[in-house]
Design goal:
binds dinuclear copper ion, 3 domains, transmembrane helix, five-stranded mixed beta sheet, respiratory chain, Cytochrome Bc1 Complex, Chain D, domain 2, Cupredoxin, 336 residues, Immunoglobulin-like, electron transport
């Protein structure tokens, strides 16, 4: 009996150490959806059962290695055992009960992830070899990135134009295949809980570039989401300054030029309009319309002192004349 007591203590200690270690090992990225909470709760229970089963086996083994090792001079065979009916019944009934219990928990978690909100935002997710498209049919536009409002449920309807893909954002925990064919649509409901940028990865081997079938997922404040939807549906605004701000973001100007005076690789746009600047050739210029247009079209033509080592790409090449004028209007609006 003292052996059983010692083994029980050993198993209990091992279970706590392993279970606590695994539970706190950060084996999953931070949770970012309501539905994922049910999955995480399930994972945690599994972790503890796994820790106990592992400790049960390795605990008995470790103890036996030490307590029942051969003594010096011992030559005979060990005791002979002929089964143990009680033990056999126990190790059949107990695991059966645990498996049934987890089947119940799994079904409950599945139901939890499918709880429907009638006001859910509808987005159709279309997988293709090898990219994702998101159709916001209620608003009548499509996007290459998935933007979702925080704390509101989105109903994603999955489909595919060719082969089976799989929608997977690890922080949301849920995964759903996107199947090709009429009537093969599958649904997934997600209520994001943390503002931020995530990656959607295809989780079904779908061909040569499967590994690169990645899209941006952006969880936004509801007001930002509504603003984004309005921008997508209304087209460019009538106000050249607002358009200029949009080009500032879309053409990547913001990577090098701040609009709040802070330092980035290039000069900030805040208050730059109308100032006098010393050029690298020793002359001075006034930052006016003409100089700004030249700087966008031919960035290396006249460089302001202190920025001579920075090579700006000729961004103007990919913009229309009107867009360049919009940008200059936007810079002028930042003069105050
Ligand atoms: Cu699509 Cu893998």
């Amino acid at each position: 009996m003292k052996h059983f007591f010692r083994v029980a203590v050993l198993v209990a200690i091992l279970t706590v150490l392993i279970g606590f270690g695994l539970d706190n090992s950060g084996y999953m990225p931070a949770l970012a959806s309501v539905q994922g909470a049910a999955i995480d709760a399930l994972f945690r229970k599994h972790i503890w059962v796994i820790s106990f089963l592992f400790s049960l086996i390795s605990g008995f083994m470790l103890y036996s290695f030490v307590a029942f090792r051969r003594k010096p001079g011992e030559e005979g065979d060990g005791d002979h055992f002929e089964g143990h009916t009680g033990l056999e019944i126990a190790w059949t009934i107990l695991p059966l009960g645990i498996v049934l219990y987890f089947a119940f928990l799994g079904a409950a978690a599945l139901a939890e992830t499918r709880r429907a909100d009638p006001n859910a935002h509808k987005v159709t997710v279309v997988g293709s070899q090898w990219s994702w498209r998101f159709d916001y049919e209620d608003y009548g536009f499509s996007s290459t990135e998935l933007r979702l409002p925080i704390d509101q449920q989105s109903l994603l309807t999955m489909t595919s134009t060719d082969v089976i893909h799989s929608f997977w954002v690890p922080e949301f925990r849920l995964k759903q295949d996107a199947l090709p064919g009429e009537g093969m649509e599958r649904e997934l409901r997600i209520t994001p809980t943390v503002i931020g940028d995530y990656k959607l990865r295809c989780a079904e081997l779908c061909g040569l570039e499967h590994a690169y079938m990645v899209s941006d997922v952006i969880v936004m404040e509801v007001s930002d989401f509504e603003k984004w939807v309005a921008e997508q549906t209304e087209g460019p605004s009538d106000d050249p300054i607002e358009r200029g701000e949009l080009w500032y973001e879309q053409y990547g100007c913001q990577a090098c030029h701040s609009i709040d005076g802070s330092d980035r690789i290039g000069p900030t746009w805040a208050g730059i309009f109308g100032t006098e600047e010393l050029l690298t050739d020793g002359t001075t210029i006034v930052v006016d319309r003409e100089y700004l247009i030249e700087s966008i079209v031919d960035p290396q033509a006249a460089i302001v002192e202190g920025f001579e080592t920075i090579v700006m790409p000729p961004t103007g090449d990919s913009m229309t004349e009107e867009q360049i004028h919009d940008i200059v209007d936007f810079i002028e609006s930042l003069a105050e």
